[in-house]
Design a protein that fits this description.
Blueprint: H1 9-26, E1 33-37, H2 42-52, E2 57-61, H3 64-67, H4 69-87, H5 109-117, H6 134-143, H7 150-155, H8 182-186
Parallel strand pairs: 1-2
Length: 195
């Protein structure tokens, strides 16, 4: 109940494609055919799209970018747009970009180094990083604070241990961190050392 609902890459891709098609149709473009590279099972994806757009001839195929030239062109445009967006990205969080942050793919050592060197113990990564990405998720498991939700314990059949509110505050004389996370500084929140 309290934990974040996962929104996987397949669902994001499906919803984005639906949104793009819907947007084009709403602008009055007369679309007759739609070709897409599959994300997940091609037949299920095609069926899903056909249920939303029954009047369109929709083709979903594996490796559609090598089969249909229009998909190849769209793929190139998408990669160029993505690279441009990354190139122009302005971080709002305090991150070290002196060594760059790479292209964002798992095979890129710069991307892996950027993630490893810019993980916040409490908040994880900057908002450009997809936390569910396995590389990021693994780093979070290794280096970030463990978050245990009450309903996680209920789901596991255990009893949750109640903590006193005061246990979440620093004790008297505890030195304040030099750099607070953006979340705290934007809201002008300081550490509470006494009640």
């Amino acid at each position: 109940m309290l934990c974040r609902t996962k929104y996987n890459l397949n669902e994001i891709s499906h919803d984005t494609a639906i949104g793009l098609i819907r947007s084009v149709l709403e602008r009055g473009v007369r679309v007759k055919e739609v070709y897409l590279d599959t994300v997940g099972d091609p037949l299920k994806y095609q069926s899903k799209l056909k249920s939303v757009f029954p009047d369109l001839n929709i083709t979903v195929a594996k490796k559609a970018d090598s089969t249909y030239s229009i998909v190849s062109a769209a793929s190139i445009c998408a990669k160029v747009a993505r690279d441009k967006a990354l190139q122009n990205w302005k971080f709002t969080e305090k991150v070290d970009t002196r060594n760059g942050f790479g292209c964002g793919y798992t095979s890129d050592p710069k991307t892996k180094d950027f993630l490893a060197n810019n993980i916040d113990h409490v908040f994880g990564f900057s908002k450009i990083v997809r936390f569910s990405w396995s590389t990021a998720s693994k780093l979070l498991d290794e280096k970030a604070a463990v978050v245990k939700w009450d309903d996680d314990e209920e789901a596991e059949g255990g009893k949750s241990k109640k903590r006193k509110v005061s246990s979440f505050f620093a004790s008297e004389g505890t030195p304040a961190k030099q750099h607070s996370h953006r979340f705290f500084t934007e809201r002008k929140l300081d550490r509470c050392i006494s009640l």
